[in-house]
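Hey, quick one: can you model this chain's 3D structure?
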Amino acid sequence: MNYRRLFPACLLLLTGCSDYQWGWYVVNPTTDQGWTNLKFLLAGFNDTIQISLLSMVFAMSLGLLVALPALSKNKLLLWFNRCYVEVMRSIPVLVLLLWVYYGMPTLMDISLDHFWAGVIALTIAESAFMAEVFRGGIQAISRGQHEAAESLGLDYWQKMRLIILPQALRQILPPLGNQFVYILKMSSLVSVIGLSDLTRRANELVVNEYLPLEIYTILVLEYLVLILLVSQAVRWLEKRIAIPNY
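Sure thing. Here's the predicted structure for all 246 residues.
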């Protein structure tokens, strides 16, 4: 099938009921200009996927470390957990992103490019939500599992790594998938600090072509395809790690 010919037909079906004079030539793959613009837009997948994956991995690691004090009986650790979660959840992601990009280099006298500023900001913002996901998943494991692990002579870290966390992972996989989708959508904010992600490239093309509706429609479709693929991958993983006949 010739997808480059199918694309204009789909766009015609999508916009045929409107009186607006669409300029789909700007992203029409059958023309040299449209094909060049499409390749420029699609190249943004690289930065969007990279920053989202790294932020997800770091946020899960930091979120787990923040969640563990919530399971302690130590009041100081409990206080640390609640303060961190409540403060980080209260700061808008865009505000945190701007503060990290402009504030951290000044306060810490370091050089920080837009990519790592985006990773740090998304990681910090998301870690608070991850902490709550991990806390809920771990607390859902029955007390008997903890007692069984302790009766085998396992220390705290062995118990968590070998017994508790593998069981909790099965329960928290759906919310983890939701949080990854959230990170993918929030990654569009890094365009304000200059990262050439999907949104930044769409904005640059709008400035050059003056056809925002057409270009942002393609941007919507890009994010839609990306998030649908992630959702399907999470469902597949759920089935892979599910306990048979449970």
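One thing worth noting: The first helix runs from residue 3 to 15.
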